[in-house]
Amino acid sequence: MSDHILIVDDEPFNLDTLSQDLEDLGYVTNTAVDGPSALQMIDNDPPDCLLLDIMMPGMDGFEVLRRLRSNKNFAELPVIIISAATDSENVIRGITLGAEDYLPKPYNPTLLKARLGNCLARKHLRDIEKKYLQTLEDEMQVARQIQSCFLPAEIPAQRGWDVAMWLRSCKEVAGDFYDVFEAPNGGTILFVGDVCGKGVGAALFMTLFRSMLHAQCMETARSPEELLVEAVRFTNGYVSSVHERDNMFATLFIAYLPEEGDVVYINCGNEPAMLLSDGEHPAHLLMPTGPALGIFGQANFVAKTVPANGGTFLAYTDGLTDALGEDGRPCGRDKASGWLDPKLAPDQQMAILQEKLEEYTLGKGYIDDITVAIFKPGK
Question: What domains does the chain contain, in order, with CATH numbers?
Answer without folding.
Answer: 4-141 (3.40.50.2300), 151-377 (3.60.40.10)
